Each structure stands twice: as C-alpha cells, then as structure tokens.
Amino acid sequence: MISIGGPQQYAVTFEPFAAKVHVVIIGGNWEGWQTGRANDKETFISGVKAQSKVHTRIFQYVNLNEMAFDRSGSWCPTFWDKMNSMNWWLYDAGTSGTKTPDWQDPTNKGLMNLTAAAPKDPATGLGSMESGAKYVNDYYHLGQSAAYSAVPSLDGFFLDNVFVDPYVDGDWNRTGSSQSQKSAGAQAAVMAGEKAYFDYLKSVWPTGIQIGNSGDGIGQAVAAGWSVAGLDGVLQGGVFEGAIGKSYSVDTWAGAAEMQSYYQSAMASLASPKLLVFGHGNVSSTGSDPTAFSGSTPSSSSPAWQGMRYGLTAALMNDGYYFADAGSYDEETTANRLWFDEYDDAGAGVGYLGQPVSSAAGAPQTAAWTSGVWKREFEHGIVLWNPKGNGAKTVSLAGLGNLKHIKGSQNPTTNDGSMVTGGSVTLQDRDGLILLRQIPCRTRAPVGAALRVRRRVHRPQGRVAPRQHARAETAPPHHAGPARRSPPAASVG
C-alpha cells in the first residue's frame, strides 16, 4: 500500500487498515511534518505492527533527485542547503550556467547530479547521494533533529525515481557538454550514484530494508537492451508503479505480454526479500478500472469486479504484492480504501491460497498455459489470468482436481462458492479468476496467513511512454491481493 497523498496524518484510526497489508509506504516526508501534531511516526508504526497478523513492513517515502530551484519550495531545506553549497546541481553543460530542469516540473524544479562527478563533501567524504542517504537516515529514522522524533520501528526507506535511463540529457559526468540520457556512460554513472545511496544505508543500518521506485525503469531498460548491472541486486524491493490502470501503464501502451516482461525483469533485479509492489491505478470500489484513455483521462472502463480480477491475477503470476489504488495514493481517507473478497477469501483470512506448489506449475509464470491463458497453482487453489487482447476463452481444468469458486458477497455472480461444473471455465478478455481446491493438494508444509505469492515459508516507465512518479512533498501507491510486489495466498501490499 502506498499512502503518500491526502492528509498524511497517520493517526491511530488508520492503523487497523494499514495492519491488514504486507507493505506500507508512508509520506509526511517534509521537515516540519511533526510540528504541532499529537502523534509521531513511531507511534503509528508500532501501533500498526502490534495489530498486524501479516508482518506488515513500513517504509518512509523520500525523493532526492528532484530539487526545488528555490529553497522555500523544498521539502528538505536542511539538505537543500548542503546540495546548493556543494553545487550538486545537474547542469546542461559544466558546473554552472543553466541548471537542467526536472522533466516533470521544469518550471519549479531542477535535478541533483547523482554521479561521482559531483564533488564529495570535504567534511564527511560523502558524495551527493551518500550525503542524501545520511540526511534521510539521520532525520527520518534516527531523529537527530529537535523537530522530528526517532522512528526505530521503521523498516527502511522507499526512494522515488530510481532510474537506469535518467529521463533527461545533461552533463552527468561534468565533461563540459551534455550527455544523452540513453548513453551507456550516463546511465552507468547514474546507477553508480544510486547504488552509493543504498550502500551507505546498508552500512549504517544493516538490519534495514531499502526499496525504491524502480520497477518500470528496470523493465524498460531490459526491454531496450540497456545494461542494468549497476542496479542488479542493489535494491531489496520496489514498486512497479501503475503497471495497469493508468494512461502511462505498460499494460496500456505496450500490452499484457510486455507488462509481464517488465514485471519479471523488476523481480529478477531485486535482492532478498524482494518486496515488489505491483501497482494497479484507478480501481473503483466495485473493482472496475480504465480500459481506454483520451489523453490521460479514462474514456471507458471494465465491468465491475473484472478489472480488479485482471490486475490481481496478473500480479499472482509472480511474487509481487498487488496494490489497487483509487487514483490518489490516499488510503487514509476511508472512501479510498479498497478491499475485495479475493484478498482474503471473503473474510476467511489472507494467505488462503497457501504457498505455490513445488512443481513448475507453482513457479513464477513466464508464458501462457493454454489458449493464451496463464495459470499458477497453489496449495489451496489455482489462479487463471487471461491477458488483454486474448479474447474470451474457455479452458479445460481436467487433471487439476476438484475446484470451486470463492464464496463472497461483493460479486456473487462469480464468487458464489459453487463447484466448477463441466470441467471448464470461461474467462472474458482481460479477466482473471481464483478457484479453490476442494481438497488441498500435497506440496510443502502450510504457511501462515499472507497475501503474497512468495516461496518462503517463514513469513507469520527511448522514453517509450510518459511516466509519473509518486510524490509526497506536497501531498503526494496499496497492495492487496494474493500475490506485489503476502506469501502466496493472496498478497496485499
């Protein structure tokens, strides 16, 4: 769950909902956040963890590459002062002159040069991204400021905008002329700077888990044939932001197969524990989502419940935590909180699918099973996913045992608890289905409740398409379901 928009109060009333999911990313990442508040982050996080039955992990959102040109517009004026005094700005050419603007907000923001070409701080010996890592850890974790309390229960940081392609040309290597964002030299230098951030945090906080907004960036790079070696195994988790449901979603502009390819690449790049949130944007309370856009505005939608099933089952083809968001990254507002019968078998409990089976049928899937439909098997059920563009398909379930539908209240037409009859089911185009085993199959030992598809047993966006990033500076994604980025059963993130 990504809750970095809206009020960002993180009050006690939000704790029970946050405690239902496996991964929570919170905002409130400006220096004055705690001033005048009755609560602090440690109170919220410890309260969530005390109520959680799914080992909820909570991460603090931060963004270091984009910096307001004017100090008054910065979320981190203390670090802005350091960056400005060290002249860590990215310039079009050289070390002065025109500051390279942020591609998303070119009027108000510039970019920090993340690379080793930016000078080290003589007081600490740290470069720009290492200094940024020190700042966020000192301020938002250790509480080394009179204005902000320590947060010892925090699990780690979520760094926005982790790139292979830095999305803008600029003099990244300070050679006196601009380098293309697509050049191998610029990309390698940017990845090395990002790695320095993560390496610093690992050195001072070895028990922390550090994640970032890397999913579609890694996927794009692999698809384009660029090297991602600089980030391989560096992050321990991330977000595949808006994989489905946005005008900029890979599923929207490139199709279902490419979306799954991006997903596979993002998962493959991560180090343990591989906490990847699979984002599905613009999902309604009745489970519909956009299927077409006019510009960035949805122009048509899926039938009720079908869009959510499509996203959730897509996520369950791999080991991410599914996060369906109403469109604002504001899960504190009650009306925006989404919870579907498929997340916990209509109240039976997360983790109801159990672990993936130990055969190839339970491994993360990379291709269709039959008639273009994908399948993944779990101890207590199977998941079917029919990609966009495949058309309606009827598939035989012969040899898969006795299967039945979930018995839910939201969509009793589909989830009526009935046994599958005739040995087959029909899936509409761009749809999915979770079926339960009448008699659990024998695989490995059962695992505790968890809504994610994980094989561990100990758990209790050339600029091919426009991309947007989660931001929490002003006000600036939830993962719920069997898969993003829960152990397999249904993973909610």
Q: How many separate helices?
A: 10
Helix-strand category: alpha/beta
Mean pLDDT: 90
Cross-sheet strand order for the largest sheet: 1-2-3-6-7
Characterize the biggest β-sheet: 5 strands, parallel
Compute the separation of the termini in Å.
5 Å
Percentage of residues in strands: 15-25%
- Global Rg: 22 Å
| Overall geometry | globular
| Beta strands, count | 18
Helix and strand sequence: EHEHEEHEHEHEHEHHEEEHEHEEEEEE
**Helix proportion of residues, in percent?**
10-25%
Poorly predicted regions: 440-489
Describe the secondary structure blueprint for this structure.
Elements: E1 2-3, H1 15-18, E2 23-26, H2 41-51, E3 57-62, E4 66-68, H3 77-85, E5 109-111, H4 128-141, E6 156-159, H5 184-204, E7 211-212, H6 215-224, E8 237-244, H7 250-253, H8 256-269, E9 275-280, E10 290-294, E11 297-301, H9 306-315, E12 321-324, H10 341-344, E13 374-378, E14 381-386, E15 393-396, E16 403-405, E17 424-427, E18 431-437
Parallel strand pairs: 1-2, 2-3, 3-6, 6-7, 8-9, 9-12
Antiparallel strand pairs: 4-5, 10-11, 13-14, 14-18, 15-17, 16-18
Helix pairs in contact: 4-5, 6-8
